[in-house]
Structure formats: C-alpha cells, structure tokens
Amino acid sequence: MSEFAPRVFSGVQPTGNLHLGNYLGAIRKFVALQESHDCLYCVVDLHSITAQLVHEDLAGQTRSITAAFLAAGIDADKHIVFNQSRVPEHAELAWIFNCVARIGWMNRMTQFKDKAGKDRENASLGLLAYPSLMAADILLYRATHVPVGDDQKQHLELTRDIAQKFNNDFSAKIAALGLGVPMQVGEERVDGFFPLTEPLIEGPATRVMSLKDGTKKMSKSDPSDLSRINLTDDADQIARKIRKAKTDPNPLPETVEGLKGRPEAENLVGIFAALADRPRADVIAEYGGKPFSEFKPALADLAVSALAPVSTEMRRIESDPAEIDRVLAKGGERAREIALATMKDVKAIVGLL
Ligand code: AQP
Which residues of the chain have pLDDT under 70? Predict the structure, then answer.
C-alpha cells in the first residue's frame, strides 16, 4: 500500500464539445470522488495543440470545459480547478520525463498510432510526447488516483513506468536527500519520490461507443455529430440522435450474455444502465424481448432528464466568462503552490541548480 497521501488528478482536453462518453467515463466520476479525496481537475489546454495546432477559439473552449466541470457539480472552492498552461511546471516536468521515457515506449502508444494515422512522419513531436506531458500532469501533484475512461489505460501504465524509472534511476539521490516515500511495489517495500498512480477505470460506462458504430469510441473528433450526444444538445437533438442510433433488427435480448456480438445494443443498454445508475441485468430484466422502438424513447427521456440540468447550468455559467477566468486563476495559484514544491525537489534530485 502506498503511503503517499491519497490525491486525485484528472484532465479533459478543450478540443470540442464534451459528449456523453466524457461525462459518464470521466466527469461524473470526478464529481463522486470529491466526497472522499482531495482532487485537482484540469483543462489540459497544452494537450489540445498536439493533434491540431491552430484552434478557432481555444480560450473559449477552455472556458466551456470549465463551465461543464462546474455545472456537473465540481466544487472549485473545496477542490482545485484550473487550466494546465497557467502552471508552467507541467511543461518543465514533461521535459525531464521526455528524458526518462524511451522512444520505444512512445511508439507503442495506440492513441499515437490512431491519431497520427498513416502519415506518422508528419505528426507533431508533441503528439508523440503527449503521454510524457500527461505523466507530468499527474506526477507534478504526486497524485495517487486518476479517474479516466478505458481509452487512457495505456497512458496510465506509461505514467507508472516513468515514475518507476525515475525512482530507480535516482534512488541513491532520493535517499541521500531524504525525499523517499515508502511504498509497496509488487512484493517489495521500497522508497520512491513519485507514487505509482492507480487508474480508476470502473463502472458501466468506461467506454461509451459511437451511436453510429458500436465498435468505435464516442469521440469529439468524429466528423458525424450524430455519432455522439453533446452535453450542449437540447432535448430534441438528444431524442433525434437516439432515434437515429444504429441498431440491429432484433429485439433486446432476454439476458446480459445475449448482448455479446451485438455492439450497438450493448452500447445503448450500457448507456441506459450508467445514466440510471442501475446494473445492466436490471435494464435487461425490464426491456429484454422488447423492440428498440420501445427502448429508445425510454433511453431518450432518461438522457434528457440526466443531461438537461447540466446543460442549462453550463449555459448560465458560460454567460459570465470573467467569473470562469477568476475560478481558473484562483485554481491555478493553488495548483502552482504544490507544483513548485514538487519541482524544487525534482531539481534537487536531478541536480539542476
Ligand atoms: N467514449 C468514451 N467513453 C468513456 N470515456 C471517454 N473519455 C473520452 N471518450 C470516452 C474520457 O473522457 C476524458 C476526457 O477525454 P479527453 O478530452 O481528454 O480526450 P479523449 O480521450 O481524446 O476524448 P475524445 O472525446 O475521444 O476526443 P478526441 O476525439 O479529440 O480524441 C478521459 O478520461 C477519457 O478517457
């Protein structure tokens, strides 16, 4: 067991409209964790320029994601809400991690392969180094837990590899400076400077799939808006998208096992279960054997009732951008205090005067 104080960190990129996948896979978990942990929630604007450099309104997008955090129920007084670029130590630690991580590790990242596509030589160096900046985001605060969707699992494993290599390579220096924290690594009890962060990937909606293709992740960058439900969609748009969602011609199965091999049905049942906070088996007990024409309107009603309060509150918050900027500035100051303390020790460990 780690003896680092439990602390949660997670981030969302300001790359477009937040969708139901981001909400169920990440933001709703952020809200729940506030009860039990100290949390830092970050709009990771430096990440958003890795795949596409020029954005029409990056600052506006950053405010909009912040508004979504607050509207969903994140308490910016009790916890820390900020945007990444306000705390320059993220980029500073990422540079050190670029020298810890190996090129082979980065080349294996499936998100890099997906986003770089066929023309890898033309991808930005930032896109390749993305996981090293993500490790810096987390480890700058020596966060012990990171709530994320399933797509981020590999990046979290890499974060642990970076922490472990840093701890090993500098073990003598960490011990000499008295900066080691005891922790359990497998069978061994060791001292390390960075914790081996645990991903929190659980619940019925760790990977919400596209409404147009049950084998593809719901994503902000999908060119078809019909593939996702945005947090900003109104009741009519939500109902229309669910009505048009791809399904197979059969009624819903009578058992959860019957969802196997039916990705679209599995996705819609998973979304229903997550929104209603009920097990899938419960949903199947109610709708098994019924046609999609009956299930879809119930799902649309549920989605509207879950998302409407968030989108209404989001619009209210967005109408006062100066207040959002105040929240981010205050959060940035509080985050920076922790970041500076970590960097002071990291510099001493590495030997940077
Ligand atoms: N479909 C999803 N199901 C469950 N969780 C998801 N997340 C993203 N998509 C799903 C989780 O949301 C958090 C924020 O994601 P992000 O914006 O930082 O990056 P992303 O994973 O790249 O999100 P998108 O929507 O897929 O963006 P694009 O299209 O730009 O790639 C993360 O915790 C993520 O796991």
Answer: 1-2
Residue 115 annotated among the catalytic residues of the structure: yes
Residue nearest to atom 8 of ligand 1 (CA): 22
Catalytic residue among 115, 246, 260, 290: 115
Q: What angle do CA 309, 311, 315 make, to 5 degrees?
A: 115
Task: Cite the DSSP H helix spans in 279-320.
Answer: 280-287, 292-318
CATH number of the domain encompassing residue 125: 3.40.50.620
> Is any atom of ligand 1 closer than 6 Å to the C-beta of 219?
yes
For 148-187, how does the pLDDT look when each residue is reduced to its tens digit (9 = 90+)?
Answer: 999 999 999 999 999 999 999 999 999 999 999 999 888 8
Is the same domain home to 256 and 197? no
Q: What is the DSSP code string of 318-348?
A: HT-HHHHHHHHHHHHHHHHHHHHHHHHHHHH
* pLDDT tens, residue by residue, 184-198: 888 888 899 999 999
CA distance 193 to 173: 10
Residues 123 and 229 in one domain: no
246 catalytic? Reply is no
Distance CA 202, CA 193 (A): 27
Range of the domain at 166: 7-202+321-350
Tell me if residue 217 is catalytic. yes
217 lines ligand 1 (CB under 6 A): yes
Distance 311 CA to ligand 1 centre (A): 18
Measured distance CA(290)–CA(251) in Å, rounded: 5
**Which residues on adjacent β-strands are paired with residue 230?**
19
Residue nearest to atom 23 of ligand 1 (CA): 219
Same-domain pairing of 135 and 253: no
What's the rounded Cα separation, in Å, for the pair 63 and 67?
A: 6
Determine how many CB atoms are found less than 10 A away from the CB of residue 210.
23
Q: Is 221 near ligand 1, meaning CB less than 6 Å away?
A: yes
Active-site choice (153, 165, 212, 220): 220
Strand order through the sheet with 198-200? 80-83, 38-43, 7-12, 145-147, 198-200
With a CB cutoff of 8 Å and minimum separation 6, the contacts of 273 are: 204, 205, 279, 280, 282, 283
